[in-house]
Amino acid sequence: MNKLTELKCKACQSGEAPMSQTEIADLKSELPDWKIVDIGGVARLEREYKFDDFAQALAFTNKIGYLAEAEQHHPAILTEWGRVKVSWWTHKVKGLHRNDFIMAAKTDDAVKMEPADMHAYR
Amino acid sequence: MNKLTELKCKACQSGEAPMSQTEIADLKSELPDWKIVDIGGVARLEREYKFDDFAQALAFTNKIGYLAEAEQHHPAILTEWGRVKVSWWTHKVKGLHRNDFIMAAKTDDAVKMEPADMHAYR
To answer: Which ipTM score applies to this complex?
Structure first.
């Protein structure tokens, strides 16, 4: 299990200093399947997951929704037939926060979990 | 109720002739809140809906998922805190099909419906 999945999100404040490049590189190394993309000058963590049909993709979207509500940190989730693209970033810091790396690691875990087991994250 | 919501999707074939501009304009007039966008040369019908929180947005995503499975025609759904962007298009015709206008009208209906009432679409 990725060590990040054991952490909880911490409330962040507007104007909080953004992560250093060293810290980003350190946490990113824990998430080899994620990429950092720039959307309008705001860095996001992004990953696409593949599924066999629409129902499985939507079920995963709901598992991510459960995580998001549990941590009160919410991503963008693009659901299509056979795939889900997830993007994590932090509005308040206009980019990446340590919370986003924690949530990305938990998202990787959630894809392998049964919906009924998701309460472990509550 | 929009007349389009009373229609069912019909199976379409690869290579089927795309809709004429007249037919698109006629059906688009039934969907004033939707816009036609071009994504990589493929026309899509797109609309963003606003909600008060993430849970309501995700609940709507699931209602759209119910519609999509009922008609076996699937959109792209972008779910975020307080908003859902829905895009309908038809892969087989590389653009818009009459089915997409039918699904957009049903999506407009679904936003007002209780989840338990969605079986009306089955």
So the answer is: 0.92
